[in-house]
């Protein structure tokens, strides 16, 4: 894997640390529900799923 693709994964990791930090996560800690699930759970699992998809695309597209 080339250096620039490794850098993309590092940037993704830093973005995930920020997205999963307590102050950002608590923004979604409300009484609202999406399909019966609390908003914070929807946020956490959506960020997790999106990060998996982005990682997959980077590794699959640029894997050598």
Summarize the structure.
With 64 residues, the chain is mainly alpha-helical. The protein contains three helices and two strands. The mean pLDDT is 89.
Question: Which descriptors would you attach to this protein?
Answer:
64 residues, mainly alpha, two-stranded antiparallel sheet, 3 helices, 72% helix, elongated
Structural overview:
The chain is mainly α. The chain has 3 helices and 2 strands, in the order ααββα. It has helices spanning 3-19, 22-26, 39-62, and strands at residues 33-34, 37-38. It has a two-stranded antiparallel sheet. 0% of the residues are buried.
How many β strands by DSSP? 2
If you average the pLDDT, what whole number results?
89
Helix segment tally: 3
Low-confidence stretches: none
Neighbour order of strands in the largest sheet: 1-2
- Given helix and strand content, the structural type is mainly alpha
Specify the helix fraction band. Answer: over 70%
Largest sheet: 2 strands, antiparallel
Task: State the distance separating the first and last CA atoms.
Answer: 6 Å
Shape: elongated
Radius of gyration: 15 Å
Order of helices and strands: HHEEH
Strand content: 5-15%
């Amino acid at each position: 894997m080339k250096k620039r693709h490794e850098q993309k994964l590092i940037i993704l990791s830093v973005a995930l640390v920020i997205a999963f930090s307590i102050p950002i996560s608590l923004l979604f800690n409300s009484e609202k529900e999406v399909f019966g699930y609390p908003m914070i759970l929807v946020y956490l699992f959506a960020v997790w799923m999106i990060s998996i998809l982005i990682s997959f695309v980077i590794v699959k597209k640029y894997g050598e």
